[in-house]
Amino acid sequence: MSYGDAMNARTRSEERRAEIVRAALEVIAERGYRGASLAAVAERVGLTQQGLLHHFPTKDALLVAVLEERDRWDAVPAGRWRVDLLTSLVEYNAMRPGIIQTFSALLGESVTEGHPAREYFTERYTRVRESMAVALRAEYGERLPNGLTPERTAPLLVAVMDGLQYQWLLDPESVDMPGAFRDFLRLLGEEA
Asked: How many Å is the maximal CA-CA distance in the chain?
């Protein structure tokens, strides 16, 4: 096999993996992780289950790829979050309900013992709280106008963002997710 042929094969494999990840996102959004089967994902992309297993040897490996892909979409260089950018993130999330539904379904399921995404979400929330504390400190210093430290406020900020997502997913006509988030920032002392 020539170098060009090898590169083409690698590109086709990467494209197929991306297609499988997108299909898995859809299936998980529709059925939840436990209800999503490899067979359903394989069918959606026109593969047999064995063909899918060539790209992702287990359902857990596919789940990790789905979560990593979502993180790539939302990537911000470490320590670069700013409080004013968070409103933009909430607005962006309001434009992609399928991704938010998948993330929320997986998050909810991951609180059970033995769930394959539990460790991922535990580590992710540790990183997110740390990066939110850095953003809050850069904006407000060691104390916010409400008297709390950035470390005490960071979990509240993350809880509001995730809680608004759940409420919005359940009743998008009644919950203005970006508007409610801007209101929360006003409570922190940020002009939104």
From this structure: 66
Query: By the 8 A CB rule, do 112 and 34 touch?
Result: no
Q: Give the Cβ contact number of residue 106 at 10 Å.
A: 24
pLDDT tens by residue, 30-66: 877 778 899 999 999 999 999 999 999 888 888 888 8
| Residue ranges of the chain with per-residue pLDDT less than 70 | 1-9, 73-80, 190-192
Q: How far apart are CA 122 and CA 56, in angstroms?
A: 23
Q: How far is CA 93 from CA 52, 117, 160, in A?
A: 29, 21, 14
> The tokens 């950018």 sit on which residue?
85
